[in-house]
Amino acid sequence: MRKVKLHDLTFRPMISKSAVQKRVKEIGAALDQEFFGKKPLFIGVLNGAFVFMADLVRQFSGDCEVVFVKLTSYSGTESSGKVETVLGIEKSPSDGRAGKIEGRHVVVVEDILDSGRTLHFFLEHLSDQKPASLSTVVFLRKPTAAAFLVEVAHVGFDIENKFVVGYGLDYNGLGRNLPKIYVLDK
Ligand code: IMP
Ligand code: MG
Prior knowledge:
The protein is of the alpha/beta class. The protein contains 3 helices and 10 strands, in the order E-E-H-E-H-E-E-E-H-E-E-E-E. Inosinic acid (IMP) is lined by residues 48, 73, 110-118, 163-165, 169.
């Protein structure tokens, strides 16, 4: 039970490295069954999803493409919580390279579902581009995820409404490299 200190806060282990790896293997196997032969397009949401994505796609045995997007969400002045793609996939590349959504089996990969706002709006944006199918995989989900409707095909772990780090998730930039999930220690 070794704790870690990031900036001013202390975190204690919550999900072990072996539990994380076991669960990711299960989800990867499920995706392999579902999408083998369909050449899915995995879209990861940066920065948090990079670790989960890397482990997940290495469980996939068929052809697949992997891209990442960077999203920002504005709440404050915009009550709708508009989400913008900062760095993203091309809308319709003429040379047919990775990133075209139309007709593709798209799997969105995200680190954690908190309010669900970010994914809710991003999924709407993707669905406008007529994918053959659109599904979502999240590594962690908090109970607050009920705030915005997001249908999730696979969840790694449902957790309490507490701040967590590790496995891609950060606290002010630190902690993404930790191989287990840590929770804020009181
Ligand atoms: P949502 O739009 O409210 O679902 O926000 C989800 C995003 O907030 C995630 O992609 C994370 O970047 C961030 N986030 C939410 N909860 C945590 C947490 O406990 N630790 C670290 N980042 C979090
Ligand atoms: Mg994120």
